[in-house]
Each structure stands twice: as C-alpha cells, then as structure tokens.
Amino acid sequence: MAGTLDRARRAIGRRLYDKDHAIRLALACLLADGHLLIEDIPGVGKTTLAHGLADTLGLAFSRIQFVSDLLPSDILGVSVFDRNEAEFVFRPGPIFSELVLADEINRASPRTQSALLEAMAERQVTIEGVTHVLKAPFNVLATQNPVDHSGTFTLPDSQLDRFLMRIALGYPSRAAERRLLAGNELRSGSRNDRLAPVAGPNDLIDWQQAVASVGLSNALLDYLQALIERSRRTGEFAHGLSPRGGLALRRAAQAWALTDGRDHVVPDDVQAVLPAVVDHRLARREHGAAKPSAHLLAVVDV
User: Fold this and answer.
1) Are 217 and 264 in contact (CB under 8 A)?
2) Rounded to an integer, what distance in angstroms lies between the CA atom of residue 284 and that of residue 274?
3) Is the confidence at residue 25, as pLDDT, over 70?
4) Which superfamily does 212-302 belong to?
5) Which of 111-125, 127-141, 157-171, 243-257 is the most confident on average?
6) Residues 159, 110: contact at Cβ < 8 Å?
7) Residue 1: is its pLDDT beyond 60?
8) What are phi and psi of 240, to 5 degrees?
9) Which one of 23, 55, 87, 189 has the minimum C-beta count within 10 Å?
C-alpha cells in the first residue's frame, strides 16, 4: 500500500512541482476519510491537486463552482416531473460522487454553503423529506480564496470543523517556477490530459478501514491528550479543541503513519499533521501572533 501511495504522490508531483508535503497531507486526509479545505490565492494549483487525487485514485469526480447565485438544489439535486411515468423523479446533483470539488466555496451564500453540512457530517442528504445515502467513498475537497478577497463569505465555525484538514499550497519555489516558465504547462489542467490511476475506489475504502488499526501507545495517547488539554486551558485561544477536533488529530496522525508504511503512530506523525488539523479550529486571542499549532508544540513536551 505504501508503494502505491508513493506512486500516486509522485504522479501528482509531476503536475504540481515541489509540493510533496501538501500532496502527502491531501492523501493522508483521504485515507483518514476526511474532507480537505485548501485556502490560497487563485492560480497556485488547488484544482490541479484535486484532479490529480481523483485521477490517481480512480475516483468518480464532480466539480461544483460556487458562485453567489448558486442554490442548494444545484448541489443536492431536484425532483422533476416525468410525463412518461406521470410522477416526480429525483435527479441527483453533483454531490453524488466519490470526490467532490467545491471550488471557491466561500463565494456562495451561507445558505448554499450549509447544503454541504449534512453530506459532510453524515454521508447523506435529505431532500424534500427523503434521505439519500451517499455511497462510499465520499469526500469533499473544497477550495477557498483568502477571506479578505472581495466577494467572499466567511465560513462559519460549524462548517470549518467538518474539514479534517486545511492546507495552503503557496507560491512555487524558484526552481519549480522556472520549470513552469520553461515548459508548456497551461494545457495540463485539461481533463483530457488525465493521470493514469494507480488504485481504485475499493482500494481507498480498504485503506480508510486500515487507518483505524494503526496503533497508538499509551505514551502517544498521553502526548495527544496533553496537546488537546493545553489548547483548552491556556488563555491563548478563544476556545480549545473539541472532542471531534481531538479525534480528527488522532485519525490524521494514524493516516500519516500509514502513508509511511508503519502500523503505529510516533510523535513525528502528530507534529506533521498538527498545523493542518488544528489551525482552522483554534483562534488566537491576539492577532498577528504565531499559529496555534506552533504555540502548542512550543509548550507541550514530547
């Protein structure tokens, strides 16, 4: 399995230069059966990463472009009258897919954003009083522009908490940008130029189930608990990590260990995923201070 994941990571890396850590975090997020939020400026490769994950893992992919006039029914689906059958027939929306790209999610209204909540939390949607189960695997990868950009709505805490991880890609390194400038990369975003799959949906389901079997020693659990308790007891944050946030940190660390081919978690696994898991869940009381994850690592000893 670790070899297959390495092949997927290398394949995506041939399209998204010098972003190996972000690619590995994204893969670990899917292995942990979590949803991923990528927050960054336009044009740094967010959609390229989404396409790469879908292609290499062989997942059915749908893209929803979030705009100000998008309606919940545009995401979930709607019942239409079938004259031949003389009855209303449900037409599923793009949410019924294995990997759903919610592109620029914070450009839609809060009402439309909330249409994703039930799907992300319970893997089902309720439409006109009827519940429709979303088949596994089902994961959401959302992109959002920085909140200070025009035409954006801030995601509420309840929505942010549904994302297991939040990452950023950032600008390419000098060497990576030189490769972009020297090549013909503008056409690489075409869906006719897909990466070859190295796995399939059933493999992803098996890996997601395997994450739960990755072991955590009592000492490692003590370390996790110290981080969680410190987030609640320090006066640095408006509020501490919730139990769901603590479970997210544990599951992400297990998935990270699995991508490294190990059947147990070590402190380095926790430290590798901590920023992606906690920085969007914790708010510092003092603006401009260090990121929450950096503060926690500084005050909690291994």
Assistant:
1) yes
2) 16
3) yes
4) Magnesium chelatase subunit I, C-Terminal domain (1.10.8.80)
5) 243-257
6) no
7) yes
8) -90, 180
9) 87
* pLDDT above 70: residue 191: no
What is the end-to-end Cα distance of the chain in Å, rounded? Answer: 29
pLDDT of 187 over the 70 cut:
no
What letters, b where the CB count within 10 A reaches 16 and e where it falls short, cover 3-22?
Answer: eebbebbebbbebbbebeeb
Strand partners, 142: 37, 102
Identity of residue 231:
S
Omega prior to 137 cis, within 30 of 0? yes
Closest CA to 61 of 96, 86, 9: 96
Q: Which residue has the tokens 């994450």?
A: 211
In angstroms, what CA-CA distances link 92 with 4, 29, 79, 147?
Answer: 32, 26, 8, 31
Model pLDDT for residues 253-290, shown as the tens digit of each residue? 999 999 999 999 999 999 999 999 999 998 887 766 67
Q: How does DSSP assign 210-277, residue by residue?
A: HHTTSB--HHHHHHHHHHHHHHHHSTTBSS---HHHHHHHHHHHHHHHHHTT-SB--HHHHHHHHHHH
Using CA atoms, how far apart are residues 177 and 245, in angstroms rounded to an integer? 36
All structural domains of the chain with their residue ranges: 212-302
Q: How many residues does the chain have?
A: 302
